């Protein structure tokens, strides 16, 4: 059932979705010294597959792949490749995080980026039947990039941008407060506040995302279990968590899938959906997340359906599209005729 079930994904980075084969092709096309490139495809695959000892090691690979995107066709190509992979998993809709200022800071004009993203999004729909929405991400250690990111997000609202993200190394030296005004303005303009929190740091980071940035959903958020009062607050406010189990294991947030707090989050009555984060870099897919978690935690088909439906409900799809997809999920899960 899991493989056939129509799905939605809410925590997925475009730059982190690039498969090794495409990363190598882009690196050669643009003359980028991608890690492992001196050993060809196998070298790049090894870089993707090796365990990340620190978050910095993961960022090194992520930024190197990002630097391979330099022309409109590059951004379009990785977008279409992502849509192809999603379609193979029966993913109908995804809210995809993208960090525009990483590329602008490397000298890529914003219009090149947006032209490629727009072309890729149209082709994703036309060629693969996948609807993509963009979350433009701010890296928390670059305060000066916050307002340009907001301005670009507002400019691109009619071309699929639905919100602002907030990611990067989660450390006390990079607090939320310098970004409060930008997020307040974004919310006032109708953009969604969708920050990462509760991954590298604990409950205090999640509280900051809620109270300072006005988070409507939390990327990760798994360390909320360290604070029962915070769990109660998240439950009362019905703030969804985008949980990426394999990513949490790969980056050392939890020691193993079997010890992941996901069952505790569900038992506490929190709003949760599954996601893959940076799938090829963590050796996973959204389908794999469902399969692995169902096996590790003994989920019934009904529990799997509940989680898949939760992703639909937590998304910012139009309400009529939500209703149609929820009905399709029910039919597939029950074997009812279409």
SSE layout:
Elements lengths: L6 E7 L6 H11 L9 H10 L5 H12 L5 H17 L2 E8 L1 H5 L5 H19 L2 E9 L6 H10 L5 E7 L12 H9 L3 E6 L5 H9 L6 E3 L7 H10 L3 E3 L1 H6 L11 H6 L4 E3 L4 H4 L3 H12 L3 H14 L4 H16 L4
Parallel strand pairs: 1-2, 2-3, 3-4, 4-5, 5-6, 6-7, 7-8
Can you walk through the features of this model?
With 338 residues, the protein is an alpha/beta fold. The protein has one domain (7-334): Alpha-Beta Barrel (TIM Barrel), CATH 3.20.20.140. It is built from 16 helices and eight strands. An eight-stranded parallel β-sheet has the order 1-2-3-4-5-6-7-8. The longest helix is centred in the middle third of the chain and has 19 residues, at 110-128. The two termini are 15 Å apart. The mean pLDDT is 96.
Summarize the structure.
The chain is 50% helix and 14% strand. By secondary structure, it is of the alpha/beta class.
- Spatial strand order of the main sheet: 1-2-3-4-5-6-7-8
The CATH superfamily name is: Metal-dependent hydrolases
Radius of gyration: 19 Å
Poorly predicted tracts of residues: none
User: What's the number of structural domains?
Assistant: 1
Mean pLDDT, to the nearest integer, reads 96
CATH class: Alpha Beta
Give a short account of the largest sheet: 8 strands, parallel
Q: Assign the CATH topology.
A: TIM Barrel
Range of helix content = 40-55%
Total number of helices: 16
Distance between the termini: 15 Å
Shape: globular
One letter per element, helices H and strands E, the order comes to EHHHHEHHEHEHEHEHEHHEHHHH
**Which second-level CATH architecture applies?**
Alpha-Beta Barrel
Number of strands: 8
Could you tell me the strand content as a percent range? 5-15%
Structural class: alpha/beta
């Amino acid at each position: 059932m899991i493989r056939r079930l129509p799905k939605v994904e809410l925590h997925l980075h475009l730059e982190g979705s690039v498969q090794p084969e495409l990363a190598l092709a882009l690196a050669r096309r643009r003359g980028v010294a991608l890690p492992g490139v001196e050993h060809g495809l196998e070298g790049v695959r090894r870089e993707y597959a090796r365990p990340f000892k620190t978050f910095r090691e993961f960022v090194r690979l992520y930024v190197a792949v990002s630097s391979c995107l330099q022309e409109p066709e590059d951004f379009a190509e990785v977008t279409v490749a992502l849509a192809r992979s999603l379609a193979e998993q029966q993913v109908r809709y995804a809210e995809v995080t993208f960090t525009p200022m990483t590329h602008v800071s490397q000298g890529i004009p914003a219009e090149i980026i947006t032209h490629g993203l727009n072309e890729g999004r149209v082709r994703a729909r036309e060629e693969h039947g996948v609807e993509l929405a963009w979350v433009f991400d701010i890296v928390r250690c670059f305060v000066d990039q916050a307002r340009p990111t907001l301005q670009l997000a507002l400019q691109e609202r009619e071309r699929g941008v639905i919100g602002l993200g907030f990611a990067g190394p989660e450390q006390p030296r990079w607090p939320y407060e310098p970004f409060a005004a930008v997020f307040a303005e974004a919310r006032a303009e109708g953009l969604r506040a969708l920050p990462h929190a509760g991954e590298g740091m604990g409950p205090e980071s999640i509280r900051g995302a809620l109270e300072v940035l006005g988070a409507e959903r939390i990327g990760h958020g798994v360390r909320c279990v360290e604070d029962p009062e915070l769990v109660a607050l998240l439950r009362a406010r019905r703030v969804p968590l985008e949980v990426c189990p394999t990513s949490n294991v790969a980056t050392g947030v939890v020691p193993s899938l079997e010890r992941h707090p996901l069952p505790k989050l569900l038992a506490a009555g929190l709003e949760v959906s599954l996601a893959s984060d940076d799938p090829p870099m963590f050796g996973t897919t959204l389908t794999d997340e469902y399969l692995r978690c169902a096996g590790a935690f003994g989920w019934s088909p009904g529990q799997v359906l509940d989680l898949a439906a939760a992703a639909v409900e937590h998304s910012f799809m139009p309400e009529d599209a939500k209703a149609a997809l929820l009905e399709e999920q029910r039919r597939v899960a029950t074997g009812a005729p279409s």
